[in-house]
Specification:
Helix content of chain B: 40-55%
Number of strands of chain A: 0
Largest sheet of chain B: 2 strands, antiparallel
Number of strands of chain B: 2
Strand order of the largest sheet of chain B: 1-2
Order of helices and strands of chain B: HHHHHHEE
Order of helices and strands of chain A: HHHHH
Number of helices of chain B: 6
Radius of gyration of chain B: 38 Å
Largest interface: A-B, 31 and 27 residues
Radius of gyration of chain A: 16 Å
Distance between the termini of chain B: 101 Å
Strand content of chain A: under 5%
Largest sheet of chain A: none
Shape of chain A: globular
Structural class of chain B: mainly alpha
Oligomer: heterodimer
Chain lengths: 141, 169
């Protein structure tokens, strides 16, 4: 996942996580004194599974998306893919476009992330017939 | 029975299904502020409700079409579907307003008005200034300061040319 993490433990500088360039996947190391650390792959798999639920309902989609956007990361293409398919199951085209806008917004100043995501998602977008906000002219005012 | 009829009238908005009739008084009126609200926020991309609650016939048929293949929708239809569910796009959300111009204008106007009040006050409210502000008094004051050589090194008296009885050039 794309995560730029720079965290100082509040109990002192016992453990430092170096800030990484945003595209590479850093090792997720947190300052837990005990307990397992969830790897990036586990995180991704968890979210892909969440959105892959066949009978997902609209509330769960909204809740999942809003929570995901609350995290300090840009979701991986496979998570977004899973969410877009969930929108298709729910017959909600508007949410699909909104999700694409939201991940673009999440990337912030890192302008190279969104085109990469769209490139990865292109097969899904073509398959489901989802237009990107750019194609619809919605990224302009 | 009245309660279920009221529930049906309220339509799509999500309401608690457990409605109780107490003491023969019926159901309390559901206030709008207690129901989920729509708001556009970057951090909350999918709000609880759609922006447009009551669909026109055209919008309703578009929603029907949405159930089929999305490739069959034109770009205008896709935008229309978006606008049913959402009020502002992310681009529009981030757009600044021209409000700052009104704010600055308002502030300057109020400052100007305050200036008028101050001027009026000076004219009509305050009494005369003390006699020690008269030009003659001030001249005598200055002479006294020069006579006692006030600030002779770098200040007042240093600037006075006592031979020629004038300020130094």
């Amino acid at each position: 996942m794309f995560r730029a993490v720079f965290r100082l433990s509040s109990t002192g500088a016992r453990c430092l996580v170096r800030s990484k360039p945003s595209i590479s996947a850093p090792l997720a190391s947190r300052c837990y004194s005990h307990g397992r650390v969830e790897t990036d792959e586990e995180f991704d798999a968890r979210w892909v599974t969440y959105f892959s639920k066949p009978d997902i309902d609209a509330w769960e989609l909204r809740k999942g998306m809003n929570t995901l956007i609350g995290y300090d990361l840009v979701p991986e293409a496979k998570i977004v893919d899973s969410a877009l398919r969930a929108c298709r199951r729910l017959n909600d085209m508007a949410s699909a476009i909104r999700i694409l806008e939201a991940v673009k917004d999440k990337a912030g100043p890192h302008k190279e992330i969104y085109p990469y995501l769209i490139q990865e998602l292109q097969p899904t977008l073509s398959e489901l017939g989802i237009s990107t906000p750019e194609q619809l002219g919605m990224d302009k005012l | 029975m009245l309660a279920t009829r009221a529930l049906r009238l309220l339509g799509k908005r999500a309401i608690s299904t457990s409605v109780c009739v107490r003491g023969g008084h019926g159901v309390a009126k559901i206030e709008a502020y207690t129901l989920p609200a729509y708001f556009d926020r970057r951090e909350n991309p999918l709000p609880d409700i759609c922006y447009v609650q009551d669909l026109s016939a055209e919008q309703a048929s578009l929603k029907e079409k949405e159930q089929g293949s999305w490739a069959a929708l034109s770009n205008e239809e896709k935008v229309a579907l978006y606008r049913i569910s959402f009020k502002q796009s992310f681009a529009e959300m981030g757009e600044g307003t021209a409000e700052w111009k009104s704010v600055i204008g308002g502030v300057l106007f109020v400052v100007g008005f305050t200036g008028l009040i101050v001027l009026w006050q000076r004219k009509y409210v305050y009494g005369p200034v003390p006699h020690t502000f008269d030009p003659e008094w001030k001249a005598k004051e200055l002479q006294r300061m020069l006579d006692m050589r006030m600030n002779p090194v770098e200040g007042l008296s240093a600037k006075w040319d006592s031979e020629n009885k004038q300020w130094k050039k």
